Amino acid sequence: MGLRYGTGAEVLAGLDFRLAPGSFYFLTGPSGAGKTSLLKLLYLAQRPTRGRLRLFGEDLSEAPRSALPEFRRRIGVVFQDFRLVRHLSAFDNVALPLRIAGQSDREIEGPVREMLAWVGLADRASARPPTLSGGEQQRVAIARAVIARPELLVADEPTGNVDAAMADRLIHLFEALNRLGTTVVVATHDLSLIARVPGARLMRLENGQLADPTGELRHPPTNLAAEAGR
Ligand SMILES: Nc1ncnc2c1ncn2[C@@H]1O[C@H](COP(=O)(O)OP(=O)(O)OP(=O)(O)O)[C@@H](O)[C@H]1O
């Protein structure tokens, strides 16, 4: 599978991998290696320009555009730039996926309050994104991505704007979701984050290719503490 933007060179080339359902992956690699681009393929914002992408058992490489929203609803995304809805409160941003799923205000209230409390924003529920700090916006974005228990969670540097203690809490949230069956893919440069999830698998991108000379990444190493300590 490959991806190019416009007429440029391929930014991702020769990708051939399979995510094991229910697994927890970290995606690492130097800046510009193509991590965000790979995540965009996974959350269906880009189609591969070469090869095939199967998700949820369907070949989505050539699926009509109109078919994609239904699949996107099964994916939680934490964007690098958060993409919160500016005119909605933190509460309403987090509630959005539940509203889209058809839940009533009464059903939504408790879970959204609980989620905001978990990410340390109980007292910021009515604040709008432009009045929140970068770290607070990032936590709203994470709460929104996980609240509806998606089948796939894709997160781009989700702890880039928070301190170590909060990063710990957030990674616990991802692990809890993963235990409920969600496949998790987290792109990060933060090796200490990687070391906190001993059962996670590692994918490393270098120059647009998964660094996979031996095929190891299709069956990635599970001992990340050792990887992170290198
Ligand atoms: N929309 C775009 N149009 C053209 N080129 C792009 C576009 N998005 C990314 N690229 C290029 O693709 C390559 C990979 O970028 P990408 O953002 O996927 O890397 P990354 O590994 O996520 O980097 P970082 O860690 O800095 O976020 C880069 O050379 C970048 O300039």
Q: Tally the beta strands.
A: 10
Order of helices and strands: EEEHEEHEHHHEHEHEEH
Q: What small ligands are held by the chains?
A: adenosine-5'-triphosphate
Count the DSSP helices.
8
Give the CATH class of the domain at 15-48 and 56-86 and 149-228. Answer: Alpha Beta
Physical arrangement of strands within the biggest beta sheet: 6-7-8-3-9-10
Write up what this structure looks like.
The strands form three sheets. Strands 6-7-8-3-9-10 form a six-stranded mixed beta sheet, sandwiched between helices. It has a two-stranded antiparallel sheet with strand order 1-2. The relative contact order is 0.19. It has helices at residues 35-42, 68-72, 90-100, 105-118, 134-146, 164-179, 191-195, 224-228; strands spanning 3-4, 10-12, 24-28, 54-55, 58-59, 75-78, 152-156, 183-187, 201-206, 209-210. Residues 221-230 have low confidence and may be disordered. It is built from eight helices and ten strands. The chain has a domain at 15-48 and 56-86 and 149-228: P-loop containing nucleotide triphosphate hydrolases (Rossmann fold, 3-Layer(aba) Sandwich), CATH 3.40.50.300. Helix 3 (90-100) packs across helix 4 and helix 3 (90-100) packs parallel to helix 5 (134-146). The two termini are 30 Å apart. The structure holds adenosine-5'-triphosphate. Adenosine-5'-triphosphate binds next to helix 1.
